[in-house]
Specification:
Blueprint: H1 2-14, E1 22-26, H2 52-61, E2 67-71, H3 81-92, E3 96-101, H4 106-119, E4 124-130, H5 135-142, H6 147-161, E5 168-176, H7 184-194, E6 199-204, H8 219-240, H9 246-271, E7 287-290, E8 295-297, E9 306-307, H10 315-319, H11 322-333, H12 341-348, H13 352-368, H14 376-387
Parallel strand pairs: 1-2, 1-7, 2-3, 3-4, 4-5, 5-6
Antiparallel strand pairs: 7-8, 8-9
Helix pairs in contact: 1-9, 2-3, 3-4, 7-8, 7-14, 8-9, 9-13
């Protein structure tokens, strides 16, 4: 009986009425990297960032929502970053923040996150450090000398500084490309050996990047990489849910690993061309993207629909606008199915079919694969690379 109660609790938290849930906010266009994977590269380092007063107006006019996805540019180059987060927590009831960083500005990161934690005691933060390969590969993709070692040092200090704060997760996120796919398992095992991260997630390169040759990767190679990465995710799941009672631990692990496997399968399905998801895409309906200058879009990978300045920075008015409604209708009409995990995750929360059937079934599929818990051959390969 306790097991079913745990299951029903998980389902209630995940199956939600279709309503506004997430804001994707580019808090700055400023960036201190020159990443060859960046889909936002042609909008970086402009002089038209939203003012803090304009962001306050966006928050004041937006409906209540749960999750704030921050982006840029490098978000920690925005001086008022902590105050921006606190504004959305107080005005909109935000409970979760997803915060990417290249890890190159440790003092700014520590100062801002400390303020977020202090000012918002009920807020959960995913602080995601970007690492796109081993040292030489990562530095070449990111265009910053010694980036790899500097980011690892920031991650290590973050783990020490916020040890025991469970509502702050320190994760690594890696973008899969032609140049790095052969060493991402080795990278994952290196991060595991260090024991500094709470999770490690893998995204396929998306959008129009400065170097489109990085997309020259086959679906078969992507699928094989995913298969080899599943044991890494099993390790993190065990660590993440170790403190839960047995029934709750089982269902939390099932949903975590089922989600990972479902995302992997959709990445593979849509990598070489769009193929329909098992749920509707809710971009522009349950979520909105606001660029650094106030332009808004349904999705990060689609075109600009309008500018919030035309609506006096009133988010409710923009959400109800004929232009956005028309854009939402065009998404399925355009056969627009992608590999963007943020929108896969956001859309899946509003699909009972996915929550009740697709995710448990994906969990079962990865269980039946009987993969080794730790791929020792890859670990030895990594050590050989380090000694070379």
């Amino acid at each position: 009986m306790a097991g079913w109660r745990s299951y029903l609790t998980v389902v209630r938290e995940r199956v939600r009425p279709r309503q506004f849930h997430s804001l994707f906010l580019f808090v700055t266009s400023r960036c201190n990297s020159v990443c060859r994977t960046c889909f936002y590269f042609d909008k970086l380092n402009r002089a038209d960032d939203l003012t803090f007063a304009e962001i306050e107006r966006i928050s004041a006019s937006a409906p209540p929502f749960r999750k704030l996805w921050l982006s840029g540019g490098e978000p920690f180059l925005r001086e008022e970053l902590a105050e921006i987060v606190t504004t959305f927590v107080r005005n909109n009831g935000v409970r979760e923040v997803n915060l990417p960083t290249n890890g190159l500005l440790p003092e700014k990161i520590f100062r801002a996150v400390d303020r977020m934690l202090e000012q918002n005691p009920d807020l959960s933060i995913d602080l995601n450090f970007s690492l796109d390969g081993l040292a030489n590969t990562h530095d070449a993709i990111r265009g910053v000398p010694n980036n790899f070692q500097r980011t690892l040092a920031t991650l290590e200090e973050a783990a020490r500084r916020w040890r025991g704060i469970r509502r702050l997760r320190k994760n690594v996120v890696s973008v899969i490309t032609r140049e790095n796919y052969q060493e991402l398992v080795a990278l994952a095992l290196h991060i595991l050996e260090q024991g500094r991260a709470d999770g490690h997630y893998f995204e396929v390169i998306r959008g129009t990047a400065p170097d489109m040759t990085l997309k020259q990767l086959s679906r078969e190679r992507l699928a094989e990489l995913h298969r080899r990465l599943m044991p890494v995710h099993r390790h993190y799941a065990r660590r993440l849910f170790s403190g839960l009672p047995a029934p709750a631990r089982f269902f939390a692990t099932m949903y975590y690993l089922g989600n990972v496997r479902l995302h992997f399968e959709l990445h593979e399905r849509c990598f070489e061309g769009p193929r329909r998801w098992p749920m509707a895409c809710t971009a522009g309906e349950t979520s909105l993207v606001v660029d650094h200058n106030g332009a808004f879009r349904a999705c990060e990978l689609r075109g600009i629909v309008g500018h919030l300045r035309e609506f006096d920075f009133d988010v409710r008015a923009a959400l109800a606008s004929p232009a956005l409604r028309s854009e939402v209708a065009r998404i399925p009409a355009d056969n627009c199915w992608c590999t963007h995990s943020c929108f896969i995750q956001d859309s899946s929360k509003f699909s009972p079919r996915v929550q009740l059937f697709e995710i448990p079934w994906a969990w079962l599929r990865q269980r039946l694969e009987r993969l080794p818990e730790i791929p020792l051959a890859e670990l030895e390969r990594f050590r050989a690379l380090e000694l070379a």
